[in-house]
Design brief:
The chain has 226 residues and is mostly beta strands. The strands form 6 sheets. The protein has a 4-stranded antiparallel β-sheet, with no helix packed on it. It has a 4-stranded antiparallel β-sheet with strand order 8-9-10-11, with no helix packed on it. A 4-stranded antiparallel β-sheet has the order 12-13-16-17, with no helix packed on it. It has strands at residues 4-9, 18-23, 30-32, 39-46, 49-56, 61-67, 74-76, 84-87, 93-96, 100-104, 111-115, 126-131, 136-140, 146-148, 155-157, 160-164, 171-174, 187-194, 197-203, 209-215. The radius of gyration is 19 Å and the shape is globular.
Length: 226
């Protein structure tokens, strides 16, 4: 509200070197205090202010903070373990834990709205969540399904693509697979809407980055253009 808030570190410093700056016009910046946390994980703009996820005690304990002005922060209690969050244009927040999704309208009362299946290796997790202008989007290796590697040696996890317009009802579809390279695994990095289509960035085999343009709202391997 009334400005911008930027989060970063000074070059050469570790996570303990987090700094925060505030600006009213994007041109002139002044430092402001960071909440008392060892590691700032996520900073989210919310209606009426900002919301921050921090880690204390060497990153083993989460803490959640809210601010109306980016200068003073209030620590919130009773929040489930969350690693990332996004807010819709209407103010609904959706957040992810390890392999579960939570929804809230006030950042104080939370409802678990989706939970991934138990995977055979026990390592299923969601990677990130965002509001792309029309819907919430998240993804991760939470489906207990695997694809054969293109070189025929072993397999790799299939990452489903989860979307929701209201943060509570979630639909699952298949992200791109069978991409060039022996790994065949696609790590989905983020998305944004472009009219009636969605742009998605992904990291594919051999460390390359690819961009995909797909119709909204349900992507599938058959309808994606790289």
């Amino acid at each position: 509200p009334g400005g911008l808030l930027a989060l970063g570190v000074f070059v050469g410093q570790d996570h303990a070197g987090h700094r925060m700056w505030r600006s009213s016009d994007g041109k002139t910046w002044a430092p402001v205090a960071v909440p008392d946390v060892e590691l700032v994980n996520v900073l989210v703009a919310i209606p009426g202010g900002y919301w921050l996820i921090g880690h204390d005690d060497g990153g083993s304990e989460d803490s959640f903070w809210r601010s109306t002005n980016g200068r003073s922060w209030e620590r919130l209690g009773g929040t489930p373990w969350l690693r990332d969050a996004a807010v819709s244009d209407g103010g609904t927040v959706a957040a992810i834990g390890i392999s579960d999704i939570w929804a809230s309208d006030d950042f104080e009362t939370w409802e678990q709205v989706w939970r991934g299946p138990e995977t055979s290796d026990g390592e299923g997790e969601l990677h990130w969540i965002e509001w792309d202008g029309a819907r919430f989007v998240t993804t991760g290796n939470v489906a207990d399904e695997y694809l054969d590697r293109l070189d025929g040696v072993g397999s790799c996890p299939l990452e489903p693509w989860l979307t929701s317009e209201d943060g509570r009802a979630w639909a699952e579809s298949t992200g791109p697979d069978g991409l060039p390279g022996p790994d065949r695994e696609t790590y989905l990095l983020g998305s944004a809407t472009l009219g009636d289509r969605t742009v998605m960035l992904a990291s594919i085999a051999e460390g390359k980055t690819a961009a995909y343009l797909m119709p909204s709202p349900a992507p599938s391997a058959a309808t994606m253009d790289q």
